[in-house]
Structures are given as C-alpha cells and as structure tokens.
Amino acid sequence: DLTCRFGDFTAVDRVSFRIRQGEIFGFLGSNGCGKSTTMKMLTGLLPATEGRAALFGRPVNANDLNVRRRVGYMSQGFSLYGELTVRQNLDLHARLFHVPADAREARIDEMLTRFGLHDVADALPAALPLGVRQRLSLAVAVVHKPDMLILDEPTSGVDPV
User: Fold this and answer.
1) Which of 2, 61, 95, 100 has minimal Cβ neighbours within 10 Å of its Cβ?
2) Is the pLDDT of residue 115 over 70?
C-alpha cells in the first residue's frame, strides 16, 4: 500500500495494484487526485511516505540505474532541454540510457520518422507547437527501447488523428 503525504496533506492514500508484463494499466481520476504523484513514486522521482513499490521484482530505488534503464517515463510537464534541438534531445537521452554508439544514429532517425519529427529535427522545443513537443517527449521516453512505459497525460495537446 503506497501512501504519499506532503505535510498534513495526503496526496496518495494506500493505493495498491499489480501490473503484469504485457498489460496496459491506466489511472483515471480528477485533477489533483494523485495520479501523477503515484507515477512519480513508481519511477523513484518521489519517495513514498509509507509502503513499498517494486518494478521488475525489485524495490523502487532512484539510484538503481539497471531498473531505471528499463523504464521510459514521459512526465506531464515535458522533460525536454530547451537549449537543445529535437535531434540533440533524442541524442542526449539515448546516451543517458546507454543506447550503443553504433546503433544511436539509426535509433534517433527511427524516432524522428516514427514520430513525424524529421522536419523539425533542428528546431528548439520552445519553437514547436504543443502537440509536436508532446510527440518529442514520447520519442525521448522510448528512444532506449524500455521494457516499461510510464506515461503521464500522454495525449494532452496532441492533435486528433
């Protein structure tokens, strides 16, 4: 049972669930009900006040790089570097997640193609429409081929198909 408190305010109160490999799991709820806080606890970005979370059978630990490399996380408030171009953001995250050097350029090109980012590859994120920045954030989250994706508001601002 995970609980997260900020002072006297309980943001998440004894939430408990299990997600098996291959499952798609979603949190539904109103603004401020603890969805993002729960996801941050699962990634190790925010410690639980009480309880324990595990990923891949191991306790969540922000310092466990082996587990963190297996997770792709797309936050609600873009995890992009504004001073880097689209291509450079992808390259930085590929390096941080140890995409092999001999495969890095091909993987970045694949992300640019898959997410329709070739035309803006040399642009800075701030110059992009919200929906394009959202696609870039998702590309950054999957550039290292993670075993698990944790997506916070992944369709917010995305143009309908």
Assistant:
1) 100
2) yes
